[in-house]
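Notes continue from the previous slide.

Worked example: a multi-chain complex. Inputs as given:
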Amino acid sequence: MTDEDSDTEAPARAGRPTDERKTEAILDAAREAFFGQGYAAASIERIAEQAGVSKVTIYKRFGDKAGLLEALVRRQADNMTTTIGEANRDAATLEVQLVNFGFTLLSFLFDESHFHFDSMLVIERDRQREAAQRFFDAGPGTMRRELTKMLAAAHKRGDVHIPQPQRAAEDLLSLWKGFADLELRFGVVDMPGPARIRSHVRHGVKVFLRAYRAE
Amino acid sequence: MTDEDSDTEAPARAGRPTDERKTEAILDAAREAFFGQGYAAASIERIAEQAGVSKVTIYKRFGDKAGLLEALVRRQADNMTTTIGEANRDAATLEVQLVNFGFTLLSFLFDESHFHFDSMLVIERDRQREAAQRFFDAGPGTMRRELTKMLAAAHKRGDVHIPQPQRAAEDLLSLWKGFADLELRFGVVDMPGPARIRSHVRHGVKVFLRAYRAE
DNA sequence: ATAATACTAAACGTTGACGTTCACAAATAA
DNA sequence: TTATTTGTGAACGTCAACGTTTAGTATTAT
């Protein structure tokens, strides 16, 4: 009679329960396919095969190809938000603080599983406008906000001279992403390891602080 | 009015001569399609239609889809080389010199017809490795070389303190391309006009020169 | 056991794109 | 005019992918 519509995690429903690991496997396979070959070239059939899942399961869960991309974007964005949250630690000096922040960011960006992401999304942005916007907010947007706050605080303390913190934040993000990103994208160099990433971040921070040091 | 062609070389061959304007029209249409939708999603049939050309003509001239992309990449790379060559003018001060250089570069990069180029190429780079490399050499690679030379000369003159000119060139290129590029790619802002571009370039140069000024 | 739900495999219809062939029209040199 | 080459349109074969359907299996609560 009275259906227990409990909004808790315990389903307590009849029938075979959904296997959440399959959802993860599908999204992992979709990531590989979409990022590696682009949205159009990726095939649901191969995604299903690689995920060890029936094609029908994908359609049951995500509706269609666009829905699968939508879900993937959401997961990646959440993932990024989490990573960024963990990066915002306090440290002794501003320099160390920035280096930590940048290292976390670049380690994330220069990861095989995320690297092709925006390239695909950019091409698809006309068809997936809100998805692209959401990803920007979760990734670069959040990054800019956090960094802007940090820089404004440092300016107030007198550590640096940064009258326009948002613009400065964009400068630093540009220096970090920078040319290494270009070389990577065109396959001129290999993916850098942690040591190279840290060195690159340090260099960016140094240049940045030289430009914005207190007079 | 009939135009008498006297500039071009006479083919002096029998039969109907090839219409070079058709080649251009095909490449223009291919650019729109490839850059806008990506390689896989673009269709030769629609490219032919948009170019006002028979599909067979495309196959006669370019062999297949990959050949068409190949030719397109080559044309874009040549185009870029030409533009960069024109940008390298001497000017009174280093600052003016850099601003001119950057303005030419960004005007080219932030043009609708080139903007999606690397996004497509990145996804296709595994299948079109040499095309990607060629484009990198013609574009960012040349840019870095030219800029490195300019900065090394300025360092020798004592105008600035740049012991590692190539790294500094990468920094400046990063600052220029920077965050505006990201916002554009995700559709957060519209394509900037010349005024905004010049302002952005100026800012980049200022930050750069503050960081690398002579002590 | 039974009902209910998740899931699979295989087949299906449909669409769109690649690349080819063929008959024919258009343009030019001889 | 004639030979030669460019270009067109329409049709064709092939293939890969989307998304659906169906019949049946697996897993759970009652």
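Summary box: Residues 1-8 of chain A have pLDDT under 50 and may be disordered. The first helix of chain A runs from residue 20 to 37.
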